[in-house]
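Module 6 notes. Inverse folding takes a fixed backbone as the condition and produces residue identities as the prediction. Think of it as a translation problem where the source language is geometry and the target language is the twenty amino acids. Below is one complete input and output pair. Work through it position by position during the lab.
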């Protein structure tokens, strides 16, 4: 009788361990699937966060430190990270179309920032749009310099 009870206990323990292993594998699979795009909202949020970090901290010499889109109006806060003054001569965003920013050129001293606006494609709700960013700028010594974003700018529409 005691050997039967002992065998039953080992069988129950093995089944529990098996279920725990399967649960861990399923959770890992869901996380990986979410990161690589299996769930569009998870994928978009990860890309949007990565893009915002890139543009606010890694982009150089011009960084986009803040942005907001409402309907077809996109507002961008651009900062000069160069140790010299920069003249921002052209900035174009590309998505379904090409959207050049108006009000340029502007001069930004070292560490200076300016808010720029552009009319883009219209969005509503919390729709996400990604824009390619191409910037042309000059310094006192060199003109016609370009900066293209290594990552697109992911924007979530706000009503």
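Target side of the pair, the amino acids:
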């Amino acid at each position: 009788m005691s050997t039967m009870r002992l065998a039953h206990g080992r069988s129950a323990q093995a089944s529990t361990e098996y279920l725990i292993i399967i649960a861990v594998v399923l959770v890992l699979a869901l996380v990986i699937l979410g990161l690589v795009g299996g769930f569009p909202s998870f994928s978009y949020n990860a890309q949007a966060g990565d893009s915002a970090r890139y543009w606010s901290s890694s982009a150089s010499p011009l960084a986009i430190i803040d942005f907001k889109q409402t309907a077809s109006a996109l507002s961008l806060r651009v900062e000069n990270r160069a140790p010299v003054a920069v003249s921002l001569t052209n900035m174009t965003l590309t998505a379904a179309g090409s959207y050049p920013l108006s009000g340029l050129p502007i001069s930004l001293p070292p560490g200076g920032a300016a808010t720029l606006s552009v009319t883009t494609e219209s969005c509503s709700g919390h729709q996400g749009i990604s824009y390619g960013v191409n910037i042309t700028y000059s310094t006192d010594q060199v003109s016609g310099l370009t900066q293209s974003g290594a990552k697109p700018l992911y924007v979530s529409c706000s009503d």
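Reference fact for the lab report: The beta strands are 62-70, 73-80, 86-94, 98-100, 106-108, 113-119, 128-138, 145-148, 153-156.
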